[in-house]
Structures are given as C-alpha cells and as structure tokens.
Amino acid sequence: MLKKWKQIGGFAMAAFLFVAVQSQAAQEDRAAQGQKLYDDLCAICHTEKPAKMMGQPVDGLVAKMEKVKGLTPPPNDKVAEMQEALKPLSGQDMKDIAVYLNGLK
Ligand code: HEC
Predict the structure, then answer these.
(1) Distance between CA 54 and CA 7 in Å, rounded?
(2) 82: CA distance to ligand 1 center in Å?
(3) Which domain holds residue 65?
(4) How far is the CA of 13 from the centre of ligand 1 (A)?
C-alpha cells in the first residue's frame, strides 16, 4: 500500500515538474516575442534599458500603456507617436512587452 502511494507521489511530482518547466518555457517565448516588439517599436524613444520600466510589475506596465493609448487628444507629438506605435498591438502583444520589461534588470 505504501509503495503504491510512493509511486503515485512520484508520478504527481514528475507531472508537476513537467508543467512547471513547460510554463517557464512559455514565459520565455513571451519575453522573446516582447523583446522583438520592444526593440522594433519602443526602444527608439525609451532606450534599450528603460530605467523607469525595468522590473516593474506586468499588470502595471500594461495599465500604463493602456493609459497612454487612451490620452485624447495626445498632449504632445511624442505621445501621439507612441500611440501610433501601440495602435497595431493586441492585448497579448502589450502583455508580452510587459513580460520582457519585467524581466530586465
Ligand atoms: C515617439 C516616442 C515614443 C515611442 C515610439 C514609444 N513611447 Fe512610450 N512614452 C513616450 C512618452 C513621451 C511618454 C510619456 C512621458 C514619459 O513618461 O516619458 C511615454 C510613456 C510610456 C509609458 C508610461 C510611463 C509611465 O511611467 O507612466 C509606458 C509604459 C510606455 N511609454 C511604453 C511604451 C511602449 C511599450 C512602447 C512601444 C510599443 C512605447 N512606449 C513607444 C514616448 C514614446
């Protein structure tokens, strides 16, 4: 009986590790995707190492992007340009960028 539980425990642990590794890989894909978008669209203004955004929580970063996106009328030309950069991005794209920025140190 005990042996059986050990087997079940071992299996559960293996399954858990598998899921953990999978989701970490998925997270890295998201960050890689976010980096590409960031380098193409954002780094030109915010630099490659945006001190104010690095390591910030993902949800907060997305909320700030949404806030800038929603400024009407845009307060200046730079913000208008950023809005143009944000326009084609999906919610997932913005989240990917946020995951990338969150991982920067
Ligand atoms: C044309 C220049 C420009 C581009 C391109 C641009 N931004 Fe911005 N961004 C600004 C300006 C200007 C502000 C508002 C003032 C500030 O915080 O410096 C701003 C503000 C922000 C903020 C809010 C910062 C805060 O602390 O409130 C975030 C987040 C942000 N941008 C992310 C992005 C992302 C992600 C991209 C790429 C999709 C992007 N920006 C592209 C110029 C730009």
Answers:
(1) 44
(2) 6
(3) 2-103
(4) 43
The residue among 104, 105, 103 whose CA lies nearest residue 27 is 103
Tokens of 86: 């944000």
pLDDT in tens, 33-82: 999 999 999 999 999 999 999 999 999 999 999 999 999 999 999 999 99
Ligand 1, CB within 6 Å, residue ranges? 41-42, 44-46, 52-53, 61, 64-65, 68, 78-79, 81-82, 85-86, 97
Total number of domains constituting the chain? 1
Residue 70, domain CATH: 1.10.760
